[in-house]
Design goal:
Structural class: alpha+beta
Largest sheet: 7 strands, mixed
Number of strands: 29
Strand content: 25-35%
Number of helices: 15
Helix content: 10-25%
């Protein structure tokens, strides 16, 4: 062993590097506050909740899509050991109907079942297995009826509901009905039924209160609406019902089915005990609303240069058994039926009808996604017939700010459609795969799945999409927020539910930017707070973010006024940067902490966008607050013998108004694009004769990380919308709307086949006679 001199350094002598400053304010990639808890598995989801004396609930659902209920016998279930309550329609003390948009759905079916999986009864027991066995022991005698499953038959069928089969009809008329073009193309298109398929199935806990009310712990995305519905159903006042929002495991639709929530509270009120219900995956598929299956017929007129002259279309939405939000979905479909193109003459007729299929409702991009697939197919047909490049014909007709939509509304927001399309068109194409065994995984189907490499064809296609932000047709969009500051810590109280869209992160950034305070907490959401509305269509970025900003600015004024008065200047001459308050002339310089000096400041503010109006009898009106646009170029490889499709790359350009959180924004776009891949290729909830087949995640094929293509965000246009807080736009829905149309366009380019149905079936991509 050799002698060595070992030098040690004490901790006191070790130079300590200065800590890196934390991300701060708007425009930076501030990490999500709940990221750690979610990755560590400690995030408080509803399925994890527990209470002393807990009972378990189960729901009996109809095995038939259409039947008359002859009798319901609950005696066997009530006599089972461990069963505490069995309830049916006779046990609903208040309003027996509910529904997101139109309250036309019974809490429990009483005389007729109108869809597969409709609730008949619910049970509370001391063990989940006991509850399920007791639910199965409820004897229901049915007179099975022939279901109406074709929406076209719904017009002539006997009424399926007291309100009739027609939910809404919109006959849009814009321009000259006699206008014609030199070139005419027609097409018929079908969009299948897609499910939001939340990874975390529905769960909830109901706890009775001493005042005779009940508290519901749910992953609700619209707690105040759900509270109002529950109170009406239970025959209670609003003050007696409270909803506490638990951790939401992501939402691309209305996260919680009200038909799931309502029996839970009824059981808690009847038993006087806490009651928990965790839905199985099958129950989740049977219970919540799906994307509207849609039949579309189109006729496009264009001149010899490819300029659009007139668009005629018929759009039929299958609403399923109940209306839900079908009226709003139809308005979006009809309004955007021509896409982000200048169309001087448009005649669009749309219907939403009831059938005995599973209910349809709000799913991200509703209405807009279905018509995008159809009008982009029509643009491809025009390009082929005229011998014009598909991107070029789209450029010639691209919508811009100042143009008029077919509903007669002038586009006043930024609409850089041509700029977006040019960006994806000019982006370099991906390299072709090598025809070697080691690169077989690049071919459609993956290893062992592809046919001969010589059967693979590459296609390039385009999609242009648009969506509306916030509600439409006169919806009162409003949100309220409170900002409190005490001991150098800011707290935000706002009932905007964090569904994965990043609102809590945005709220922290807004307060940091406005007040210069690093530590910002966002309080949990419950219905004791003022309402903020549902978490969809970018609402919370706009109205809830706007409310937080206004409240923070009011607190800022409270903070700065004493200093401004002391130095004889207005608060506008003071600025807050990195936690320091300085004046324009440098005379005043202090920290926010020193200025607070232990004071507690708070303010409450509202944000309400400018009003809109319903569409009139001709489908005309200023129906939308704002619009967002997206362009996508899809590159696909298709095995024309097997019909298998591999999405190689999706190049995305989007107008975002203003980038508030770069990492969060990119993640939302990539997620939306990937969701669109599923809609284009795999997601199809099959319902033969109205029965949901394979209601599980093996029968319903969601895209996984292995199915996600290369997603290239090639351009983000930051042209601020002057009427929106921060100028930002919704970013999640429009890539969902656009990517299925772009993928279908690319498959058409590769195969020469029409591809008029989504998801794309293998037989639609097979080319014979090669």
């Amino acid at each position: 062993m050799t002698n060595e001199t070992v030098t040690t350094t004490t901790a006191a002598e070790t130079p300590v590097p200065a800590p890196e400053p934390l991300p701060h304010g708007l425009g930076v990639s501030l990490p999500a506050a709940d990221a750690g808890a979610k990755t560590e598995g400690t995030f408080p989801y509803a399925a994890d909740l527990w209470a002393e004396g807990l009972l378990w609930a189960a729901v009996l659902r109809s095995p038939h899509p259409h039947a008359r209920i002859v009798s319901i016998d609950t005696s066997h279930a009530r006599e089972m050991p461990g069963v505490r309550a069995v309830i049916t329609h006779e046990d609903v003390p208040g309003t027996p109907r509910h529904g997101r948009g139109t309250p036309d759905r019974p809490v429990f079916a009483s005389e007729v079942v109108r869809h597969h999986g409709e609730p008949i009864a619910a049970v509370a027991a001391d063990h989940p297995d006991t509850a399920r066995m007791a639910a199965a022991a409820v004897i229901v005698e049915y007179e099975v009826l022939d279901p109406v499953i074709d929406p076209e038959q719904s017009f002539e069928a006997e009424p399926l509901h007291p309100d009739g089969n027609l939910i809404r009809h919109i006959p849009l008329q814009h321009g000259d009905p006699d206008a014609t073009g030199e070139i005419v193309v027609e097409g018929q298109y079908r969009i299948g039924r897609a499910d939001p398929a939340p990874i975390g199935a529905e769960a909830g806990l109901a706890v009775p209160r001493p005042d005779g009310g009940v508290e519901l712990y749910l992953a609700s995305t619209d707690p105040h609406t759900d509270r109002n519905t529950a109170a009406a159903c239970y025959g209670l006042s609003l003050e007696q019902v409270k909803i506490v929002v638990t951790g939401v495991p992501g939402a691309t639709a209305d996260r919680e089915d009200q038909g799931f929530q309502l029996p839970l509270g009824l059981l808690a009120l009847k038993t006087g005990c806490p009651v928990k219900l965790t839905a199985t995956r099958e129950e989740s598929f049977l219970g919540h609303a799906h994307r509207h299956p849609t039949l579309l017929r189109y006729r496009h007129h264009a001149d010899a240069e490819g300029m659009l002259v007139k668009v005629e279309a018929q759009i039929l939405l299958d609403a399923g058994a109940y209306a839900d939000t079908s009226a709003e979905s139809l308005a979006a479909a009809v309004s955007f039926a021509c896409g982000p193109y200048v169309v001087p003459n448009a005649f669009i007729e749309g219907w939403a009808v009831r059938t005995n299929n599973p209910p349809s409702g709000h799913v991200r991009g509703e209405g807009a996604m279905q018509v995008c697939a159809a009008y982009e197919a029509q643009m491809d047909k025009l390009a082929k017939k005229l011998g014009i490049d598909p991107a070029e014909i789209r450029l010639r007709n691209a919508l811009a700010t100042g143009d008029v939509l077919p509903i007669g509304q002038t586009v006043t927001c930024p609409a850089p459609v041509a700029e977006l399309l040019q960006a994806v068109r000019d982006f370099p194409l991906p390299a072709l795969p090598k025809d070697t065994p080691e690169d077989e995984w690049l071919l459609p189907g993956g290893p062992e799945g592809a046919g001969e490499p010589g059967a693979v064809r590459r296609g390039v296609g385009y999609g242009l999409g648009m969506v509306h932000m916030l509600g439409a047709e006169g919806a009162d969009e409003v949100s309220t927020a409170t900002v409190k500051v005490h001991d150098g810590i800011a707290t935000v109280l706002c009932a905007a539910v964090e569904t994965g869209q990043g609102f809590t992160t945005l709220a922290r950034q807004i307060v940091q930017e406005t007040l210069g305070i690093d530590e910002v907490h966002v309080a949990p959401v419950d219905t004791d707070q003022p309402p903020a509305g549902p978490g969809c269509r970018g609402r919370h970025t706009w109205v809830s973010g706007g409310a937080v900003e206004r409240a923070a600015k009011m607190v800022r004024t409270q903070l700065l006024q004493p200093l401004a008065h002391k130095f004889g200047m207005s608060t506008e001459l003071l600025q807050i940067t990195d936690g320091k308050i300085t004046s324009y002339d440098g005379v005043l310089s202090t920290t926010v902490t020193e200025a607070l000096d232990g004071k507690e400041l708070w303010a409450t503010a509202q944000c309400r966008p400018h009003p809109t109006e319903p569409l009139d009898a001709d489908g005309q009106g200023d129906a939308f607050v704002g619009l967002a646009f997206c362009a996508i170029r899809a590159v696909v490889d298709v095995d024309i013998e097997l019909g298998s499709v591999r999405v190689v790359e999706l190049a995305v350009a989007q107008d975002v108004g203003r980038i508030l959180n770069p990492a969060q924004l990119n993640a939302r776009i990539e997620a939306g694009v990937t969701q669109g891949v599923g809609i284009a290729l795999t997601e199809n909830l099959r319902t033969p004769r109205g029965l949901i087949r394979h209601p599980d995640l093996t029968g319903y094929a969601l895209p996984t990380a292995l199915d996600a293509p290369d997603i290239r965000i090639v351009k983000l246009v930051e042209e601020r919308d002057v009427v929106a807080p921060f100028g930002a736009k919704s970013v999640s829905a429009v890539p969902v709307v656009t990517s299925p149309a772009a993928i279908a366009s690319a498959v058409r380019a590769a195969t020469g086949r029409p591809v008029n149905r989504l998801p794309i079936r293998p037989q639609a991509a097979v080319v014979t006679g090669q």
